[in-house]
Structures are given as C-alpha cells and as structure tokens.
Amino acid sequence: QVRLEESGGGSVQAGGSLGLSCTTSRDILGLVAMGWFRQTPGKERELVATVSSGGSTTYGDSVKGRFTISRDTNKITVYLQMNSLRPEDTAVYYCNVRGFANRRQYDDWGQGTQVTVSS
After folding, report:
1. Tens digits of residue pLDDT in 10-63
2. Which of 29, 82, 98, 114 lies most in the core, judged by the most C-beta atoms within 10 Å?
3. Given a cut of 90, is residue 1 above it in pLDDT?
C-alpha cells in the first residue's frame, strides 16, 4: 500500500515561518515530481510549488520569493519552507507525488495539513 506522510504546518502570526515535509513510499525510480498544492473553502486547489526528479522547481506566483521547495538526496522526501507568511496563505496544504510504476501513471495526494496565518 502506498503511503504519503505529511508533517508540519500549524498556526503562526503574519510574517512568521513554517515548514512542511512529505515522504512517499513510492520507489525513486519512476518518480516524476513532488510538490505542494493548497486549497481554501470554495476555491480550487492551486499550485504552491513542485520539484521534478531532475531538480527543476516551479512556484505559484503568490509564493515566489517567500517559499522554498527542496528535496533530500534520496528524492523521496520533499520539504516546503514558508517564510514571510501572510493571512492569505491560510489553507489546507496537500502533498502531491506523480510518476510511473508498473507502466502506469500515478498521481498520489496526501491527506492535507492545515496552515493558519493570523494577522
């Protein structure tokens, strides 16, 4: 059974920092990208940041310059460092892992972790 373990998040005041991490039980081979998305009630899930197996990163416009995504050397854990947090960053953050296994594409999602930024 595939496992996707998220940790981190919580509550912080505006201007503060938080970190998220996500570890997948998927094999390194076949991993295409790992990343984070977020969602607030009534809105669509939006991109926060992703990192590809090759190390390329992509950020949502609203977090550029404030958030940093990274991965560990074995490539199955991804980290999101969130600095200069704003109230509008409040959301449920979901880890996402994409790749191929047994010749089939997979698109795994974590259970979500709450991030709350107070003004």
Report:
1. 999 999 999 999 999 999 899 999 999 999 999 999 999 999 999 999 999 999
2. 82
3. no
Long-range contacts from 5-10, C-beta under 8 angstroms, 24+ separation: 5/110, 6/93, 6/95, 6/110, 6/111, 6/112, 6/113, 7/113, 8/80, 8/113, 9/93, 9/113, 9/114, 9/115, 10/114, 10/115, 10/116
How far apart CA 31 and CA 76 sit, in angstroms, is 8
SS3 state at 97 = strand
Q: CA-to-CA distance for 25 and 77, rounded, in angstroms?
A: 9
Confidence of residue 74 (pLDDT cuts 50, 70, 90): confident
Q: In what order do the strands lie in the sheet with 67-71?
A: 4-8, 18-24, 77-82, 67-71
Q: How far apart are CA 53 and CA 86, in angstroms?
A: 30
Q: For residue 13, what are the β-bridge partners?
A: 118
Token pair of 20, please? 């998220």
